Amino acid sequence: MENKKNILVVDDSALMRRLISDIINSDERFQVSDLAMNGLEAFDLVTRDPRRYEAVLLDINMPKMNGIQFLEQLDKMKIRQKVIVVSTLAKEGAAETVRCLELGAFDFVTKPDSYMEARNLNFKQKLLAALGVATGVDIGIPAKEKAEPASAVTTKPSARPTFSSAASRALYDVTSAPAKRAAHRSVGSGAKKLVALACSTGGPKALQSVIPKLPAQLDAPMVLVQHMPVGFTKSLADRLNEMSAIHVKEAAEGDVLKKGTVYIAQGGSQMRIVRKGSDYVITENANEPARGGLKPCADIMYESLVDLDFDDITCVVLTGMGGDGTLGIKQLNNKKNIYVIAQNEATCTVYGMPRVVAEAGLVDEVVPLDAVADAITKNVGVH
Fold first, then answer.
1. Cα angle vertex 271, ends 266, 276, to 5°?
2. Is 167 exposed, middle or buried (0-12, 13-18, 19+ CB in 10 A)?
């Protein structure tokens, strides 16, 4: 295959460099063009020619310059690289992994604990899938068209896109018929309001541009699904809480929704909202299977709101691969007073989830990332 994607592998273990290189070179779409033993060597290679690599596979725990320090230097110099963290710390040190994502790492793959485990098919599939998305050769969503300016605000749907897989075409066909949008009804400060947000790839970094900008007195609770495995969402919630005036926590079974609080669905569980007496309460089910490979799944969260008596639901869809959230929002649109905000293409890490919901005709407002918090606050108000 011509025009193979150039990959830089950064790991202090010679054995892991060889194993990861063998996996990458086994796929005709990619080739390992360089190896580095630590972040310092990698930084030297990247700064020589920032456009040389389509993706960088990065360990965290390394001598001289670790993975976090490498990403901090890239961020400081405003060098953009598609970095996939591949580290055992991705499992053991959730806070370190979240920090990498905050600094702009595209995604992470947990490195197995032993060489034999690393040779199994599951690790290979995850690694190649992450590379496929990061380099744009196997995104599984409508192909990206010309980006609008980052400052643009538009509600105009784009033309029917091309597709990179049968699955993405099927999802588009299910959701593409424009829904009949009832005019959004403005509601007063005494109304029952909720914000429900969904994001995936690129979400942890994007959330840093949204949640800290929300006022502490937001006149609604927020429920949030970020696609992450078990063990990571608490670190994400804790980090956002440190940065924000609004209260942020990992959702827990039995939490009663309160205004001015953001509840992040637990990784490895499905989150629903139920009514108990006069309260709206969170349920977290770790035993429920993944839907579409997702656990938590935004569609499940949105579907749980359909029969609740909220007067107004603000749905927000940020960067992410695939189309999770669209089917649930479509069900909400049929029965509830909703207002849908989607992140624009130019500011998305992966323009999948916002695009699918926009193509379904369900979006009221498309805004750049730095305008999302203001759009939420304007629609919801403060108390």
1. 125
2. middle
Distance between first and last Cα of the chain: 59
Which residue in the list 200, 244, 269, 304 is annotated as catalytic? Answer: 200
Active-site residue, 33 included:
no
Tokens of 383: 């108390």
Q: Per the residue annotation, which of 87, 168, 219, 227 is the catalytic one? A: 227
Q: Establish whether 75 is a catalytic residue.
A: no
Tokens matching residue 72: 């901090």
Full pLDDT tens readout for the chain, 383 residues: 568 999 999 999 999 999 999 999 999 999 999 999 999 999 999 999 989 999 999 999 999 999 999 999 999 999 999 999 998 766 667 889 899 999 999 999 988 776 677 677 788 998 999 999 999 886 443 333 323 333 333 333 333 444 444 444 445 455 455 555 667 777 777 789 999 999 999 999 999 999 999 999 999 999 999 999 888 999 999 999 999 999 999 999 999 999 999 999 999 999 999 999 999 999 999 999 999 999 999 999 999 999 999 999 999 999 999 999 999 999 999 999 999 999 999 999 999 999 999 999 999 999 999 999 999 999 999 98
Q: How far is CA 377 from CA 45, 100, 194, 196, 301, in A?
A: 44, 28, 12, 13, 21
Cβ neighbours of residue 51 closer than 8 Å, sequence gap 6 or more: none
Of 11, 59, 219, 324, the catalytic one is 324
Residue 311 annotated to the active site = no
Residue type present at position 284: E
